[in-house]
Amino acid sequence: MTLSSAREIFTKLQNQKVCEILILSGEVHPNSPRRQEWFERIYDLCELALSMGFLPHTNAGPLSFKEMEQLKNVNVSMGLMLEQLTPKLLDTVHRHAPSKLPELRLQQLEWAGKLKIPFTTGLLLGIGETEDDCWETLEAIAKLHRNYHHIQEVILQPHSPGTQQSFDAPPFDPHKLPEVIATARQILPEDITIQIPPNLIPDSQWLITCIEAGARDLGGIGPKDEVNPDYPHHQEKDLRETLQPYGWELVERLPVYPQFDGWLSLKLRDAVKSWRSGERVKFATDKISKG
Question: Is the pLDDT of residue 164 over 70?
């Protein structure tokens, strides 16, 4: 994407109550001659988003320590899904994805902690893992967080088949999700929020059950779900109508939690402050709290 194309998109978003710009990218091999150009484009997109009043969050696959250190200057938070740490998936769903090496992804989380980058990670459920595999992945996240206290939230994402994937497997059974959430809540430290994507949970009653099991974040609600384009985001109004009868209320939040504001550069803190003070209309993502 060119910067001029991005500017056009950002300009349209300025009137749609959007606060967070999620920077996603296909991966370029670390030793590729294109790597520097690729990285500079990501950095420039983040700078552009900031200059237009948005708060960038980058998730572009595994990065070097130096790349993460540089992106810290233009991102209020960053993220990378662990998916699952079991190496057996390298023989199945991840067999053509060298960047899915468990130790490589776990290293990213550790570097983020060392660099004091507020971070989001998560698990992809239903890709060939066992229950024990899930618990071991959650334990690894918990251990790193106890060392660095940098994980904002863990996403529990049920595998949902889409038209743009080659992985042939049935969707994760949504009826199993509340149990996974409840166990995750026991494993993870209390200051890590559990996030679930409501557009991947087909039954509104099961969404409520997931919340009651311990989920407290519904992620981003935007014009389009770029990660799961076959599953449109719910509208804010519809979510409120689903939650309110059960005593739950949508609460807006920014892509960086307040306790991490002190980790940001002065420039980023000023950008965040303008949103927290209500000088701009906030919307980016929604967190649930008991009403």
Answer: no
Q: Which CATH class is domain 77-290?
A: alpha beta
The pTM of the whole model exceeds 0.85: yes
> 78: burial class by Cβ within 10 Å (0-12, 13-18, 19+)?
buried
Distances from the Cα of 202 to the Cαs of 96, 132, 154, in angstroms? 30, 26, 21
Domain ranges of the chain: 77-290
Beta carbons of 43 and 79 less than 8 angstroms apart = no
Cα angle at 1 between 14 and 161, to 5 degrees? 90
From CA 153, how far away is CA 230, in angstroms rounded? 24
Rounded to whole angstroms, the Cα distance separating 132 from 140 reads 12
SS3 call for 3: helix
Helix boundaries (H) for 122-231: 131-148, 177-187, 204-213
Q: Quote the pLDDT of residue 129.
A: 77
